[in-house]
């Protein structure tokens, strides 16, 4: 069974205050003026920091927008508990499909993908790993509940590959968002791989 560390630390102290101020300024300016009008000096002035502070911490504007998007993608609550793994996974998948297929969700994913940090030049994917970790942690919560109930459960990676990946691909590259019935079919297919976790013998 794949185990994902749910603890994704946030910065503390002055670093946290700077991040919060810059993130808040970025979101306010996005709402007021749109992405095309954003500049680092404009964000810095709104946040009460110098442009060099932003450049040192984030580099390019695209990297700042990606960081803001990643933080917005951080879940603020555990998945709903419906009483079964299948029910939990379906409820979560429907919500995830709605969020990622929305204009806001698509914009956040595009911001994350736009961050370069020189990764492409080094042959690496320019995507912060926190997004996948956030999603996997939500799925692990569902799987852990099922194990405690004694239910058969799918592997976390199986859910990522069978449910999450098609939702994201369709949102980014499809001509239309994934239909609810298709999301349900993906969950049903994933649940066919479910197995009971082995019990641990008590000494």
Explain this structure to me?
By secondary structure, the chain is an all-alpha fold. The protein has 2 domains: 47 residues, Homeodomain-like (Arc Repressor Mutant, subunit A), CATH 1.10.10; 112 residues, Tetracycline Repressor, domain 2 (Orthogonal Bundle), CATH 1.10.357.10. The protein contains 9 helices and 2 strands. Helix 1 packs across helix 2, helix 4 packs across helix 6 and helix 7 packs across helix 8. It is elongated and about 55 Å long.
Write the layout of secondary structure elements.
Layout: H1 13-33, H2 40-47, H3 51-58, H4 61-73, H5 85-101, H6 103-114, H7 130-149, E1 152-153, H8 156-173, H9 180-191, E2 195-196
Antiparallel strand pairs: 1-2
Helix pairs in contact: 1-2, 2-3, 4-6, 5-7, 5-8, 5-9, 7-8, 8-9
Instruction: Return the CATH architecture of the largest domain.
Output: Orthogonal Bundle
Shape: elongated
Content-based structural category: mainly alpha
Mean pLDDT: 84
Summarize the structure.
The chain is mainly alpha-helical and 203 residues long. Helices cover 64% and strands 2% of the residues.
């Amino acid at each position: 069974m794949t185990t994902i560390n749910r603890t994704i630390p946030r910065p503390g102290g002055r670093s946290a205050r700077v991040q919060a101020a810059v993130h808040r300024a970025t979101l306010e300016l996005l709402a007021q003026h749109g992405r095309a009008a954003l500049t680092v000096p404009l964000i810095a002035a709104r946040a009460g920091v110098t442009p060099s502070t932003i450049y040192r911490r984030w580099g390019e504007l695209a990297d700042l927008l990606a960081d803001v998007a990643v933080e917005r993608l951080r879940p603020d609550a555990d998945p709903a508990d419906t009483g079964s793994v299948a029910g939990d996974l379906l409820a979560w998948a429907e919500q995830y499909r709605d969020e990622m297929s929305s204009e806001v969700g698509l914009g956040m994913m595009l911001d994350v993908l736009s961050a370069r940090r020189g990764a492409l030049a080094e042959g690496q994917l320019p995507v912060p790993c926190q997004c996948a970790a956030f999603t996997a942690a939500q799925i692990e919560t569902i799987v852990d509940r099922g194990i405690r109930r004694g239910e058969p459960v799918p592997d976390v990676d199986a859910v990522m590959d069978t449910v999450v990946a098609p939702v994201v691909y369709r949102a980014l590259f499809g001509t239309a968002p994934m239909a609810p019935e298709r999301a349900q079919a993906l969950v049903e297919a994933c649940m066919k791989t479910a197995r009971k976790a082995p019990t641990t013998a008590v000494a």
